[in-house]
Sequence to fold (113 residues):
Amino acid sequence: VRLVESGGGLVQPGGSLRLSCAASGFTFSIYNMGWYRQAPGKEREWVAFIISPGGTTNYKDSVKGRFTISRDNAKNTVYLQMNSLKPEDTAVYYCNVPGWTRWGQGTQVTVSS
Fold:
């Protein structure tokens, strides 16, 4: 099992980023997927969730209306489009199958002017 996150970076408040997570080593299309984040000094938290099949999504209240999770089962990839970014969104972002405990390296998102 391998999860490789990418797309992070430094962005000004109000900016946008699109994160990608390439999955391999398991049948991606049959698993629900989530995005999580961990800010310095804080525990990892769930951010967004997408069901497969069907594509039903759910979001942490603080990101609703700003973040959009999507997936491309043909590419074994899950995405997180992040708009209207705020400094409090600064964290390392990870993708994973909900309930799994093995994590990738994550991708750093820093929102700062």
Q: What stands out?
A: Strands lie at 2-6, 9-11, 17-24, 33-38, 45-50, 57-59, 67-72, 77-82, 91-96, 107-111. The chain has a mean pLDDT of 96. Residues 5 and 21 are 4 Å apart (CA to CA).
